[in-house]
Amino acid sequence: METKIEVLIPEEDIRARIKEMAAELSEKYKDQPVLLVGILNGSVFFLTELAQQMSIPVEIDFMAASSYGSGKESSGRVLITKDLARSIEGDHVIIVEDIVDTGQTLHLLTEMLLERNPASLELAVLLDKPTRRKVCLDADYIGFQIPDEFVVGWGLDFNQKYRDLPYIGVIKD
Ligand code: IMP
Ligand code: MG
Predict the structure, then answer these.
(1) Do residues 141 and 123 touch, judged by C-beta distance below 8 A?
(2) Is 101 annotated as catalytic?
């Protein structure tokens, strides 16, 4: 059967919103160096667009954590499969992620990074599904709040597919 994907957020809206988030971050961090920590693989499209739209220089680094095996349901566990290249002690760090769903992944990653004593730690996400939250977690910068639908595109995948879609879409079975 052919997979149909319905557009939830069109490309222009996403780029325009990321530009606004970039402006807000650039203003906030204009006087201090900032490190963007992208969570692989989902964050890469959002992170590159955000970094390029920011008017201040940023450093970037990546961590990989996997909480979803395959399919649409969370395993509830987070496995760090790639760590940062260097210490973040004393640094201003922004975690960049594609989506907060149950919040479990970012909750655990935030705790882990806070133990490394950064000067500050904020969280920027492209998408937020507030109705799905299982642990208390509020992102500092949110691109869009979306309903409880499984979405793909802009780094978000379904079984590793559709990450490269330039819009946010919903898979219709
Ligand atoms: P959480 O720990 O439940 O917040 O899940 C976070 C991770 O689950 C995200 O980084 C995504 O990789 C994945 N995820 C959650 N919702 C979706 C979705 O709608 N589409 C694709 N991946 C999702
Ligand atoms: Mg992810």
Answers:
(1) yes
(2) yes
